[in-house]
Design goal:
- The chain is an alpha/beta fold.
- It has a single domain, classed as Alpha-Beta Barrel (TIM Barrel), CATH 3.20.20.
- The protein is built from eleven helices and 13 strands.
- An eight-stranded parallel beta barrel has the order 1-2-3-4-5-6-7-13. A five-stranded antiparallel sheet has the order 9-8-12-11-10, covered by helices on one side.
- A hairpin with a 4-residue loop joins β11 and β12.
- The two termini are 35 Å apart.
- Keywords: Hydrolase, Signal.
- One of its GO terms (biological process) is carbohydrate metabolic process.
- One of its GO terms (cellular component) is extracellular region.
- InterPro entries: Chitinase_II/V-like_cat, GH, Glyco_hydro18_cat, Glycosyl_Hydrlase_18.
- GO terms for molecular function: chitin binding; endochitinase activity.
Amino acid sequence: MDMTGARLSWSLVLCWITLIMATETAAKPSLRSIMYFTGQHPIAPPIDQLAQVTHVAIAFMSPGVFNDPARSEWPLFTTVDQVRAQFRSGTKIMVAIGGWGDTHGFSAAALTEETRKTFAKNVAKMVRATGADGVDVDWEYPGGNGEDYKEVPNSAKAWEIDAYPLLLDELRAALGPEKVMSAAVPGLRRDMLAFTPETIPKIMRNLDFLNVMTYDMMNRRDTVTKHHTGVQLSLEAVDTYIANGASPQDVNLGFAFYTKYFKTDHEACSKAASPVGCPTLLLEDPQNGADLGRGGGFSWHDGIPENVAESFSKALSQGVYDDREGGYYYLDTKEDIWWTFDTSEAVKQKFPLIVEKRRLGGVFAWGLGEDAPAFQHLAALNEGLVEYSSGRKDEL
């Protein structure tokens, strides 16, 4: 073969390789998309609506079960195999450990080197027994500010800040490098006690990605109205993790497939310059941190509570999008209720305003079944993923 023929053959090979890579790229999402599959709403749509989903986190398994060295059973509301069958081939199925108020098991596990090793070995045994592809660590508030922060002061939990990355060290060592390992982490700066410039590098050496909970950012500890999953608050959250040492590609933006509402102070809000930032009623018991019942929320799959049904109907039809802070809202001045949630359009807005702006590596949602039966927010999330992924390819 002469040199001209050799060059032509090599060119054909390169074209073939390029074609294969392009085909594979087109078939795979460019961004991570993680869906929490919850015991409250264990529902998935038809598989053709799940093409963009890369990971599923089954929520939850309690951390306390891993502290017994003799443990051999792993209680979960479903099985990994049952969940895997509902998603496309290749989707990573993980087990989420913990949750909002389930922290005692983590504290006990993190206490000493011995307890950390026991916990990690049991998690690895669970992953092998269930066939999971990894775990999502939902110790959401190490160091304090969790559900019991009024009863157990943050000072009593300060030791957890250094112990948290040590526990992750043991988990990674037990799981090995091939298993997926992630963590759900706070979205509010006031709660990021264990996520500092000193600890984030230690945390990220073990994790494949962070699920930043950019929702519930208005909750019963607040005293004025704001967007519970707003754009500006979300930017503050991801910017803090990035500034403290996390790579943008390792950060996933959180989406809430549910509504939130809070009772407002009628007289004070009537005088406020804007519905955003107007005073609420006292939402939390100042003595024990208990919910005073002046707020709530429900998923799109839930029945609408009768006491707020009429107000919610108005929120759907009369709500507006706040272009400044970034969030859909409605202030019912008759019932004195502040509504804050994402519409489908608000979901799509977050791709140019947050994901693209900060070049994040993925998104996640709590939770998949919460968006049933219409799965309109999932559709909006998928649309945003496809459009953004196409834009990224165009730039290459």
